[in-house]
Amino acid sequence: MYGLILDELATIYSCIDFLSFIHLH
Description:
Elements: H1 2-24
């Protein structure tokens, strides 16, 4: 159960990180 939540958070975090990267460049 916790693994699934962490996987979701990792996906969301990488998506946000990707968007911030585009926004900065």
